[in-house]
Request: fold
Amino acid sequence: MIKRHVFIMGGTGYLGRALASELAQRGHEVKALVRPGSESKVPARCTSHQGDALDRATFLTAISPADTFVQLVGVAHPSPAKAKKFREIDLVSVQQSVAAAQETAIRHFVYVSVAQPAPMMKAYHAVRAEGEGLIRAAGLNATILRPWYILGPGHRWPYVLLPAYWLAEMLPWTREGARRLGFVTQSQMINALIFAVENPPEGVWVVEVPAIRAKSNFL
Reply:
């Protein structure tokens, strides 16, 4: 395994904190962007840099010597009522991250998008699709992960829907949609992100829900 130098946007969040900790335990160098006062949330063996995810001028010089940039910033608990925040936070943060990755010659950009197409949350999906478009337009080598909903602490209500999903995955006429829009666990998502960090592609690699589940078995 090649040691990676990883810069994480959103390194103290739902996915970021667990990812940073696991990457550090596996021997990678990890630096997380944090808001002032959040330094204590950064896991042991990781370093932090105070900055604003919406303004690359505040973190541009902190990226080096990273070869991998992980973009996890986004509005917590997305809902249709947060459409304005998606554009103000999710979109602006990925705009700034992509520009910073270009300016610092990042070799691998990792982005958590969302399963597409989907029957709901149109504003959220539109912003994430724009983020994917920015990455492609920038010509970055990138891994784009497309989960639908990530089960875990504070994100457990969809468990009641699991029997319906299992049934839908068994029926030929609903199987494809049920698999593409299936749930993944926080652990599966972290393992898929680790796999992505440790296996950078040439070009753009899109990882859908079935592959997210599968990649988690390789660690």
